[in-house]
From TrEMBL:
PANTHER family: CILIA- AND FLAGELLA-ASSOCIATED PROTEIN 410-RELATED, LEUCINE RICH REPEAT PROTEIN. InterPro entries: Leu-rich_rpt (IPR001611), Leu-rich_rpt_typical-subtyp (IPR003591), LRR_dom_sf (IPR032675). The keyword Signal does not apply. This is Tubulin-specific chaperone E. Keywords: Leucine-rich repeat, Repeat. Gene3D superfamilies: Ribonuclease Inhibitor (3.80.10.10). The keyword Repeat applies. SUPFAM superfamilies: Outer arm dynein light chain 1.
Length: 320
């Protein structure tokens, strides 16, 4: 085993080194050597792999990595990172930013969306990210974790090895905006604190940031229009589906439960059996004219439709 300081003292004799693998070394910190600077030791290093160590202190580790001038790819999966604090930038304390293009932090115990938001403050040029989505899934619609990561990181072009298309980004950001808007109880300040890109996205998509009133003048003012089409299964996310021409348009309340929506759908479309929530999908129409399924409905029949990302103008597919 070799610690970080010892590695730098050895690698000073390899000034052209570009890729360093220090996985499985039981590293608990990246404390610099007192004998040689990190800049002298690693002047041309672009890729650093710290897989499967015991690195947990995010700030001190990022400060150490910022001393590597050419670093663009950083892998820290299977470590002990639990919190990613927002970078401090004040007159008293100014923590560094890093010019990373690729970051891998999968299989760390990261479960707070605030940690994802903080990544932008450390890596303003981050284009590719590897992160475990399952720990982030609590309290949001099923299958929405990928959408929420994309919406929170404006320059992300690839997530967990899969390209983020322009269409996917638009859908993810609009879905995220609709999710933010469902909670009318939070103040504007609290909403922005929990969702730093809220106002930026609202401006981008010309959406109001005014908080909705708790009591409406009438139910009609809160109703939305959705369109439902029948699609042929089996359905694979992001893969084109066959859509029947007939389209049913309904005026509904977004606070309606999935179960109640299914009953309304059965009546409107003259279906013979009850609608299974698992047969409902949010759809998107591409510029090519093809229709793709973005995500399945929330499987809990007692959750309201906003959990599934239903909003005014949503196209819904019913698998037949």
């Amino acid at each position: 085993m070799i610690n970080w300081a010892e590695a730098c003292e050895v690698l000073v004799y390899l000034p052209n080194l570009q890729d360093l693998q220090l996985g499985h070394n039981q590293l608990e910190h990246l404390r610099p050597s007192s004998r040689i600077s990190t800049l002298e030791a690693l002047p041309n290093l672009t890729t650093l792999n710290l897989d499967s160590n015991s690195l947990g202190d995010w700030v001190s580790n990022m400060v150490s990595c910022s001393l590597i001038p050419q670093l663009h790819n950083l892998m820290i999966p299977f470590n002990t990172i639990t919190v990613i604090p927002c970078r401090v930038d004040t007159t008293a304390t100014k923590e560094p930013t890093l010019s990373l293009h690729y970051l891998a932090i999968s299989d760390n115990p990261i479960s707070n969306w605030g940690d994802v938001d903080s990544l932008v403050t450390w890596f303003p040029e981050l284009h590719e990210l590897s992160i475990s989505l399952e720990p982030l899934a609590s309290g949001i619609p099923p299958g929405a974790s990928r959408n929420f990561v994309i919406a929170r990181l404006p320059h992300l072009a690839k997530l967990n090895g899969t390209e983020v298309t322009g269409r996917e980004r638009i859908d993810a950001e609009l879905f995220y905006l609709s999710w933010i808007g469902r909670d009318g109880q939070l103040s504007e300040a609290d909403t922005e604190a929990l969702n730093p890109r809220w106002k930026e996205l609202a401006i981008k998509y010309n959406t109001s940031t005014e908080k909705s009133k708790s009591i409406g003048e009438n139910l009609g003012s809160h109703m939305i229009s959705v369109s439902i089409v029948k699609i042929q299964g089996p359905v694979v996310k992001q893969q084109p589906v066959l859509v029947q021409k007939a389209r049913t348009t309904l005026r509904i309340l977004p606070t309606m439960t999935v179960k109640a929506f299914g009953m309304k759908l059965k009546k409107a479309m003259k279906l013979l059996s009850q609608v299974n929530p698992k047969a409902l999908w949010i759809l998107s129409t591409l510029e090519s004219g093809e229709t793709i399924p973005l995500r399945a409905f929330d499987a809990d029949p007692l959750h309201d439709l906003t959990w599934s990302g239903v909003e005014d103008g949503t196209l819904i597919g019913l698998v037949v």
